[in-house]
Amino acid sequence: MVEKTIKGAIQLKNVFFSYPTRRNTRILRGLTLNVKEGETVALVGHSGCGKSTVMGLLERFYDTNRGNIVSCNYFYKNHYVVYRVIIIYT
């Protein structure tokens, strides 16, 4: 069973990000966002403004170039990522 809710607050503090293949193109420039536990937030904007990038950073597909992401008072960069693979046998 996959946990559907995130416990604790999530904070993005002065986050800068560029994709490794496009270092000269900054996708995020100083993004700061505070989401309280239980709060619902929508990321809205034009194509290419960084909505999916923020989600990728939260899922640890990438690390920030500068700034921090904090969840439950833990810095994201200090934790290893463990991906779960779902296997269905028929």
TrEMBL record:
Entries under InterPro entries matching the protein: ABC_transporter-like_ATP-bd (IPR003439), P-loop_NTPase (IPR027417), Type_1_exporter (IPR039421)
Q: Which Pfam families match?
A: ABC_tran
A Gene Ontology cellular-component term:
membrane
Organism of origin: Ascaris lumbricoides
Superkingdom of origin organism: Eukaryota
What protein is this chain from? ABC transporter domain-containing protein
Can you give the residue ranges of the ABC transporter domain? 28-69
GO molecular function of the protein, one example?
Answer: ATP hydrolysis activity
Query: Transmembrane ranges?
Result: none
